[in-house]
């Protein structure tokens, strides 16, 4: 009896006889390998989110690479075997194949001469669309024959001896008839006897394409994803990888975690990053990039160990590193938990079109009433903006002992939906250069929809008399609530100095005039010894202010120098 060659098999047909084990199990094995490979890929990509397990993630990554290699190796072996047997059919096999096709045609297909003959039997209306079914015709005439829902036993579909077939679409007329050779193969593709016999060569070509594709995908995957748990691996990851996951990582004392990222890269913190202790200038962390995303998973912590540095003195005490400096363009920073900054939290320098959202900056342990005597935090600013444009800072919480957000220089800055605890308020601090107007200028800023609790100042605007010239123009505060401020509710000082005394009692200067400082809907309270309002302007230094709906309550009288906004009550005095 003639035996069917191995290539007749499909992925769902494993009934092969007298075939080598490799060929017999080829489709089954490929199917299994592909399924396993896809499952491992899914684990590789999602395990850090679904399972939140670094060990499982690392193991899945290794398994994925192993299955890539195994799959490619298996396919290459099979291709090699197939090429060695390219002309594996004997003449007897060829005749057997053709005879079987002919016998099936005679046995199973209706033959019409001048008229067509229908199949009879059950039809699958869901599969074939009601009255329209694929069909085959007889020996030369147009046919109207239809196929029963049960396939031939070997899953082949072919026309009789070379006739025309016209698929039926509902009860209407279909497309023009199409001629089919005798003999065929299922899956809506028909082959003549030459095509059937040569099919293995085509199959091998397809396998070569699959091999190449898998190899390419594995290479891309290996390049684009890196998992970092050792400090010495960071530089290589940032140089070569588009997707970087940072697990539990210890940064040696005196070293900076530098993330100099590829364009479009993503960094995801999924573990705890801890910085070693050393008295140095820092920073602990520096990020560069264009169109990058830096984010954190729930439960991660970036720990600066600030409690080892805090001495009540901030920058006037022992040397302390800044926490994080960012220089980026068209980038997003989100869902990050910064814990215990030694000094200065997030410095946004020379950045453009950037968004910072959903941060938790937690220096609560550095509060004077919490920290051990002589070990409180100071100068632990939350966010600072310098020489940057189109910056958004939003939806974040800051617990600290200096400005919650401070704008030093730049333009088009939006701060919204902030919650500030124990800070020095939502601030402007302008004038850090002796010779750069740009570094001493801030224009077009909106600070809104925020709450300030137990701060030194609720709103603090200060220009430095020990700096060169500059300007503050078109800055608006609106919809701000402050509770329990212990020094000032709203403070504007044009006599500030970058010294430990901060210019107390100094004569104000208009080297950096404040024009268009607008405040709307500012509400709150201050503690008993605090002043609701404290305004010190230089002569002609504060111009075109618009204040409305301002209500900050406290027992102490407020003070105003050279400017008395109509919306507030204060006592005018002269320094």
TrEMBL record:
Subcellular location(s) per record: Secreted
Lineage: superkingdom: Eukaryota
EC number(s) on file: 3.2.1.15
Keyword annotations from UniProtKB, A to Z: Cell wall biogenesis/degradation, Disulfide bond, Glycoprotein, Glycosidase, Hydrolase, Repeat, Secreted, Signal
Keyword Cell wall biogenesis/degradation recorded: yes
GO BP term, example: pectin catabolic process
GO CC annotation terms, alphabetical: extracellular region
Sequence similarity: Belongs to the glycosyl hydrolase 28 family.
Record protein name field: endo-polygalacturonase
């Amino acid at each position: 009896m003639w035996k069917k060659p191995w290539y007749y098999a499909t992925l769902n047909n494993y009934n092969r006889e007298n075939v080598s084990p490799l060929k017999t199990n080829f489709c089954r094995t490929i199917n299994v390998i592909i399924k396993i490979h896809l499952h491992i890929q899914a684990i590789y990509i999602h395990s850090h989110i679904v399972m939140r397990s670094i060990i499982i993630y690392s193991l899945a990554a290794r398994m994925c690479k192993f299955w890539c290699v195994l799959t490619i190796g298996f396919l290459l072996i099979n291709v090699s075997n197939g090429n060695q047997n390219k002309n594996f059919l004997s003449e007897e096999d060829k005749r057997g194949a053709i005879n079987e096709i002919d016998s099936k045609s005679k046995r199973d297909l209706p033959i019409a001469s001048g008229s067509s003959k229908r199949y009879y039997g059950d039809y699958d209306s869901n599969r074939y669309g009601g009255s329209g079914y694929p069909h085959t015709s007889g020996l030369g005439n147009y046919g109207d024959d239809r196929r029963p829902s049960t396939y031939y036993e070997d899953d082949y579909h072919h026309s009789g001896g070379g006739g025309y077939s016209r698929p039926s679409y509902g009860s209407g007329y279909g497309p023009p008839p199409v001629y089919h050779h005798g003999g065929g193969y299922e899956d809506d593709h028909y082959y003549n006897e030459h095509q059937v016999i040569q099919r293995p060569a085509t199959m091998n070509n397809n396998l070569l394409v699959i091999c190449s594709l898998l190899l390419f995908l594995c290479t891309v995957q290996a390049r684009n994803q890196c998992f970092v748990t050792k400090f010495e691996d960071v530089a290589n990851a940032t140089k070569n990888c588009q997707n970087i996951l940072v697990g539990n990582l210890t940064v040696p004392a005196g070293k900076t975690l530098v993330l100099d990222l590829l364009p479009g890269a993503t960094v995801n913190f999924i573990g705890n990053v801890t910085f070693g202790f050393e008295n140095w200038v820092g920073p602990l962390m520096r990020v560069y990039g264009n169109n990058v995303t830096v984010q954190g998973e729930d439960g991660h912590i970036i720990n600066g160990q600030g409690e080892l540095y805090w001495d009540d003195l901030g920058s006037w005490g022992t040397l302390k590193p800044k926490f994080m400096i960012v220089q980026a363009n068209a980038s997003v920073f989100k869902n990050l938990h910064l814990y215990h900054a030694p000094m200065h939290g997030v410095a946004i320098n020379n950045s453009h079109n950037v968004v910072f959202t959903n941060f938790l900056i937690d220096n609560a342990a550095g509060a004077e009433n919490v920290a051990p005597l002589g070990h409180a935090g100071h100068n632990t600013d939350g966010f600072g903006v310098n020489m940057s444009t189109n910056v958004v800072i939003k939806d974040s919480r800051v617990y600290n002992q200096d400005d919650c957000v401070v704008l030093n220089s730049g333009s088009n800055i939006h701060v919204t939906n902030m919650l500030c605890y124990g800070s020095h308020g939502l601030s402007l601090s302008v004038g850090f250069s002796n010779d750069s107007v740009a570094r001493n200028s801030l224009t077009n800023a909106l600070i809104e929809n925020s709450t300030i609790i137990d701060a030194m100042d609720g709103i603090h605007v200060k220009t430095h008399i020990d700096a060169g010239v500059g300007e503050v123009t078109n800055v608006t505060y609106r919809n701000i609530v402050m509770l329990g401020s212990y020094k000032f509710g709203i403070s504007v000082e044009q006599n500030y100095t970058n010294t430990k005394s901060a210019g107390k009692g100094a004569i104000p200067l208009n080297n950096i005039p404040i024009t268009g400082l607008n405040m709307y809907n500012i509400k709150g309270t201050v503690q008993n010894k605090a002043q609701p309002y404290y305004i010190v302007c230089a002569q002609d230094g504060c111009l075109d202010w618009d204040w409305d709906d301002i209500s900050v309550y406290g027992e102490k009288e407020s003070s105003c120098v050279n400017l008395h906004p109509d919306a507030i009550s204060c006592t005018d005095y002269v320094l």
